[in-house]
Amino acid sequence: MMKETQQTRVVLAADLLYEVKRLSDRGARMIQLGCTQDGEVFELNYSFDIDGGFENIRVCTNGNEVIPSVSNIYLCSFIYENEIHDLYGITFEGIAVDYKGTLIKTAKLHPFRMDPTEMKKTVKGKGKLQAKTLKEEVPSESVPEQTADQEIQTDATGEVFKAVESIEGRGNIETVEKEEDREDKKEAE
Amino acid sequence: MGKRIVVPFGPQHPVLPEPIHLDLVLEDERVIEAIPSIGYIHRGLESLVTKRDYKNYVFVAERICGICSFIHSSGYCQGIEAVMEIDVPLRAQYLRVFWSELSRMHSHLLWLGCYADSFGFENLFMNAWRIRESVLDIMEETSGGRVIQGSCKVGGVRRDVSNTRLREIVRSLETIETQITELTEVFLNDSTVMHRTKGVGVLSESDAWKLGAAGPTLRGSGIKSDIRTTGYGAYEFLKMKPVVHHGGDCYARCMVRADELHSSIDLIRQVSDQIPDTEIEVKVTGGPNGEYFSRVEQPRGEAVHYVKGDGSKNLVRHRVRTPTCANIPPLLTMLAGCDLSDVPVIVLSIDPCISCTER
Amino acid sequence: MSYITKSPWIIHYDASSCNGCDIEVLASLTPLYDVERFGIINTGNPKHADIFLITGSVNEQNKEIVQNIYAQMPEPKVVVAIGICASSGGVFRECYNVMGGVDKVIPVDVYVLGCAARPESIIDGVVKGLAVLEERQTALKEGRSIERKVVEVNRSAGKAESANESEVSL
User: Considering the domain boundaries, does residue B242 fall inside one?
Assistant: First the structure.
C-alpha cells in the first residue's frame, strides 16, 4: 500500500508566524490545524499542502501558553483556532474572527482537556513514538520539563533540521520582526 | 445607506438538511456579511477513542456522517494500516474503491436533488433521488446497508463481491449513466436554472486557494487538486483525471459534480476489469504505535484522518478534518454581497455536511 | 377515520444526528417509497405540522431548539423518534455532549429503530403515529385532556428525569 511521505517539524511558538509566513510565500495551502494532548504536552499540528506534498509544523505547548494566531496569514484558520479554544482551552492571540468561547457550546467546559494523571501513561517505555517516515527532532526550551519531554529525547532518531540550528542560534528574531514589519507595510499600502 | 437588519437563517429551515445557523446582516435585500454559528451536531465522538478499542472504533468512524460514511471508515482504516504497516490485499483495496465511488455517486445525486430543491425545482429533486435509488440498490445488495455499509475494517473488507456480479453491475450502470446524462442536461442547459446559478456565489481562484477550500468548491474555481491523484489505496493503478471547471460560481460547481458522476462510473468500470483474485482481509494483531495523517477524497473534498497510537488497544487521538470545515470560510466570502434569495443556493452549493464538520 | 389522518403534514428536524436517518426520511418522500401519494407533505413551518419526525441523539445546544419547535406545533400533535440515536443515544450514548435520546427532552409517542432506519420502518412508524393522532383529535373534540408523559428537563445538569404518566390538561 502506498504511504505518503509526511514530514513533521517541531517549532517554537515564537517562530510559528515566521514559519507559516514562509510557507505562505511558497504558495502552500493550509489543510488543517489540530490539537492532540499527550500527557501534559499539547501538540498543535499545522498541516500544509505544497505542490501536492504534505508538510506538517508542530508546536508543543503546556496548555497555558498564549499562541499567536495565524489567521492574518491564513484566514481559514480562525475556525480551527476557535474550536481548539472551546475544546482544549488553549488561548490564541489575535484571531481574526473571535467567538470568545461560544463557537461550540458543550455540556462540559473544555471537554477534551483531560487531567494528565487520568490519561493512560502513554509515552513511557512503549517504544518509539514516531512512524518511520516522520523526522522529528528534539524540542527545545519551550516544552516544560515533563516525563513526555524526556521520553521524546531518549527515543528521538533522525536528522537534526536546519530549523533547530536557527532556533538555537536565535539569529532570526530580527528576521521575524522584519517579516512582520513587511506585512504591516503591505497592509498599510 | 439603507438600514441594516439581522436575519437568522437556520438551524431549522426547509432547505437545510442539517442544522447550521447563519446570522445574515442585510441592507435592504443585500447580504453584507454572514456570521456562522455551529455546534448543533457536536457529539464529541472523538472522545470515544478512550472507550472503544481501535478495531471497534471503525463503527463510530462510519457514523460521523451518513452520506459520506464509507469513505470515512476507509480513511480511518487506512490511517491505522499506515501506522501498523499492514499490507492490505489488493482485492480489498479495489473493493474499497468500488464502494467509495458508489458512495460518491449517491452523494452527488443526493446533492443534485437538494440543490434543485433550494431554488424551488421540486420535480428535479424527485427525479435525482429516483436515480439515486438504483445506486443504493447496488450498495445494499453488495454490502447490506443502504446508508451505513459496515463493510470496511482494519486489514481489509468484510464482504466479497464476485467478479461476475461486478460485471453485471457495470452493465446496469450503463442505464443509470443515460438517466444521469438526461438529468444533468436540465441542470446545465435549462434557462431558469442557469438564471438562478450563473454568476451567483463567485469564488475567485486566489481566494479559493488562500482560504483553504476543498473538493468541488476548489475545482470549480479552476484549481486542479484531487487527493485521488496521490494514489492512495488502489487509485495508483487506476487512470483518473481530476475534473476542473473555471468560473467559480454555483454553475461551475454543479458542472464539476455532474462530470464527477461520469468519472466515477468510469472508475467502477476499471475496477471491474482490473480486480485481482486475492484475499479480502489480513489478520491484525497488536496495537498501533505512531501517528499518520490519512488523506482521502470525499465527495465534498479532502478529508484528513489523523490517528495517533501508543501501542495499546486504545488510540491516543483520532482527529478528523472534514471538507465542509474547510469550506466554511470560502462560504462567508461568497455570501458577502449576494441577494437574500440566493442564500440557500449558495449555502447548498458548497455541499454542507455539518455532521462531518462538528463530529 | 377522521379527516386529520387523511393527510398529515410532517416537519422534520435533525437533532445532532449523523444524517443517515434524515436522508432516509427524505427518501421516503421520493418516488420509490412515495408517501406524498398519501397526502403527506414535508413542511418547514412547525405551525402547519401534525407529526414531528425527529432524528439524532440530542446535544446540549439543540435542546432548546427541539423544545421550541415542539412548543410551536398546535395540538393534536405526535412525535416520532427515528433511529436508534433518537431512542437511546445509539453509539454516541457515552459522549459528553449527548443527552441520550429525544425522550429526554420532549415526550415521544413512537420509536422507530434502526441505524439507519429504513424507509419502510419510517412509514410504518408514521402510520402508527396516525392512530395516536386520531385518538388525540377525538379527545380534543370531546373535551377530554390528552395523556402524555411529562418530561422535566433539569437545565443546569443537562440530564432529564421523566416523571410518571400524568395528564396534561389543555
Answer: yes
